Structure to design on (128 residues):
């Protein structure tokens, strides 16, 4: 049986941990009175409710949703960003020497990035 989560995102620049476990589809609806924009990333759960994007990896950055429009992230798209069972690494080059370290455990994060207080995004998550 499917489960549906409904989340209203109306605070600017604060990450919301939406999790992606058993996620089949995410529907983002602009219910505000102006164009809304958002970013989608994976990163440590410690980023939730904060504004920092340290160790976040963006999949979508500052995408705009027109007034009264809906964006659907389907199962095929979500399977490409699934973090369940995946290990991410930070790669760096310092003084010509490459380094690699395992990234902290990650979760799926979404943030409203627009500057207007009139932006509202309602999110419906269909889970298996």
């Amino acid at each position: 049986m499917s489960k549906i989560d409904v989340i209203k995102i109306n605070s600017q620049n604060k990450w919301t941990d939406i999790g992606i476990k058993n996620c089949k589809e995410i529907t983002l609806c602009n219910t505000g009175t102006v164009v809304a924009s958002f970013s989608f990333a994976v990163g440590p759960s410690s980023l939730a409710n904060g504004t920092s994007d340290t160790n976040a990896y963006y999949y979508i950055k500052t995408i705009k949703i027109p007034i009264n429009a809906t964006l659907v992230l389907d199962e095929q798209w979500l399977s490409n960003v699934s973090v369940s069972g995946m290990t991410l690494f930070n790669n760096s080059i310092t003084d010509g020497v490459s380094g690699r370290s395992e990234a902290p455990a990650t979760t799926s994060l979404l943030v409203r990035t627009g500057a207007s207080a009139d932006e509202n995004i309602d999110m419906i998550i269909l889970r298996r």
About this structure: The chain has one domain: 3-83+104-127. The first strand starts at residue 3 and ends at 9. The helical segments are 75-81.
